């Protein structure tokens, strides 16, 4: 959950997730739709699907692999996650390079290769930090110390070099360029997409939903229909915007009420339907519009 998401956001999700799946066997036996439902609002839903696949793979193996190569073979586990598990859980002499450690390494070695292209160069240099005998003796502690160093001292802006235990060995500090590293390339403008979302509520304030295809954007998640369910007298409910990693999206929202939803259709209480953030925005816009129309009658 902490990949691409800050601690403050994930705490309530994490507690709810562990309550639902206290053991890896419980997660492996769950339906992937239920797993994604508990993830709704966190985004990057491929993480949830991969976590479910990973749990199934670990159960099939009987336990987690104790080597980096074995960890890398698990679904959804890349170099960073494999090294984090290896160092912190199993004491392997490897370094998980997150944004904090990346920044520390770029400054200690004065690496000016711009990100994201320079990530591999910085990561390779960072691995050299763990060659010290003390670091290799407690790689998990060393990694977490570097996380904290980057988060509290070697910060993105105005690094506190006076408090840094490595200041005397930092090439960027010696050159007076610590605050300018790592260099980041200009971000490309995100492409923009547009679409439709239809909010159909019944007399019990349940909303009509669909299940998105398992692969692709919001794969496997519950969502609002993209085409108009019939029959209904649709009204414009405005539009909502949402920013994804690689593009921005504007959804035109249409809303309607019906006494009953189609028999056998997916549905959920509108107030707490387990929807991803973009769909929650659209649903809220539709409900507001319908309530406003009701108040005006």
Notes on the protein architecture:
The chain is of the alpha+beta class and 297 residues long. The protein contains 12 helices and 6 strands. The protein has 3 domains: 63 residues, Endonuclease III, domain 1, CATH 1.10.340.30; 107 residues, Orthogonal Bundle (Endonuclease Iii, domain 2); 105 residues, Alpha-Beta Complex (Nucleoside Triphosphate Pyrophosphohydrolase). The protein has a 3-stranded mixed sheet with strand order 1-5-4. Strands 3-2-6 form a 3-stranded antiparallel sheet, with no helix packed on it. The protein is elongated.
In short:
The protein is an alpha+beta fold and 297 residues long. It has 3 domains: 1-63, Endonuclease III, domain 1 (Orthogonal Bundle); 81-187, Helix-hairpin-Helix base-excision DNA repair enzymes (C-terminal) (Endonuclease Iii, domain 2); 192-296, Alpha-Beta Complex (Nucleoside Triphosphate Pyrophosphohydrolase), CATH 3.90.79. It has helices spanning 7-20, 24-29, 32-39, 46-61, 68-72, 79-90, 99-108, 119-127, 133-137, 139-152, 171-175, 277-296, and strands at 192-201, 206-211, 222-223, 235-243, 248-257, 266-269.
């Amino acid at each position: 959950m902490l990949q691409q998401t800050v601690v403050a956001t994930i705490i309530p999700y994490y507690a709810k997730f562990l309550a639902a799946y206290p053991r890896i066997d419980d997660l492996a036996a769950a339906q992937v739709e239920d797993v994604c439902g508990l993830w709704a609002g966190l985004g990057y839903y491929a993480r949830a699907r991969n976590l479910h696949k990973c749990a199934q793979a670990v159960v099939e193996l009987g336990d987690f692999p104790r080597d980096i190569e074995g960890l890398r073979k698990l679904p959804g586990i890349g170099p960073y996650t494999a090294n984090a598990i290896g160092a912190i859980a199993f004491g392997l002499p490897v370094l998980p390079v997150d944004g904090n450690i990346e920044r520390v390494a770029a400054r200690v070695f004065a690496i000016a290769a711009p990100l994201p292209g320079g990530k591999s160069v910085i990561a390779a240099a960072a691995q050299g930090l763990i060659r010290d005998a003390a670091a290799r003796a407690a790689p998990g502690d060393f990694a977490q110390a570097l996380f904290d160093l980057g988060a509290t001292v070697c910060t993105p802006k105005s690094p506190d070099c006076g408090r840094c235990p490595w200041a005397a060995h930092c090439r960027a500090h010696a050159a007076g360029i610590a605050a300018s590293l790592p260099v980041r390339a200009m971000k490309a403008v995100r492409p923009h997409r547009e679409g439709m979302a239809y909010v159909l509520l019944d007399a019990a304030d349940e909303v009509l939903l669909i299940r998105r295809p398992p692969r692709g954007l919001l794969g496997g998640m519950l969502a609002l229909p993209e085409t108009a369910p019939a029959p209904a007298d649709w009204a414009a409910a405005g539009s909502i915007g949402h920013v994804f990693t690689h593009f921005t999206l504007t959804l035109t929202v249409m809303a309607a009420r019906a006494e009953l939803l189609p028999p056998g259709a997916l549905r959920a209480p509108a107030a707490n339907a387990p929807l991803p953030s973009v769909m929650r925005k659209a649903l809220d816009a539709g409900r507001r519009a319908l309530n406003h129309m009701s108040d005006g009658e």
